[in-house]
Amino acid sequence: MSLASKQEIQSALTILDGWEYHDGKISKELTFNSYMEGIEFVNILAVKAEEVNHHPDLEISWCRVKVTYTSHDQGGVTQQCISMAKMVEDFLLI
User: Fold this and answer.
1) What is the rounded average pLDDT of the residues 4-16?
2) Does residue 36 sit in helix, strand or coil?
3) Angle (CA) 3 56 26, round 5°
4) Stretch 68-78: mean pLDDT, rounded?
5) Which residues touch 45 (CB under 8 Å, ≥6 apart)?
6) Torsion of CA 38, 82, 89, 33, to 10 degrees
7) Candidates 3.90.1590.10, 3.40.50.2300, 3.90.1010.10, 3.30.1360.20; correct CATH number of 6-93?
8) Considering Cα of 66, then 18, then 44, then 78, what sign does the dihedral take?
9) How many CA atoms lie within 13 A of 64 on its CB side?
10) pTM beyond 0.85, yes or no
């Protein structure tokens, strides 16, 4: 999969609430009511990431998870990164 253009990334960010683009990566910091809520979210995300073979970089802290997508193979954001960010947003609505 090829890299998304800056225009495609910026367009996606208009509908991806709270996501930011820096240094060839899109990321969002999520907050949860408890540490275990964050861990439950990470476990759900990990299963989906494994299914589609596109894995985020994750930073886990107390009641906080930072999710970052980039394609290490391609060296930046791809449409798959954007799709996965949309999926994260869908998980948050559940």
Assistant:
1) 96
2) helix
3) 50
4) 94
5) 56, 58, 67, 88, 91
6) 20
7) 3.30.1360.20
8) negative
9) 6
10) yes
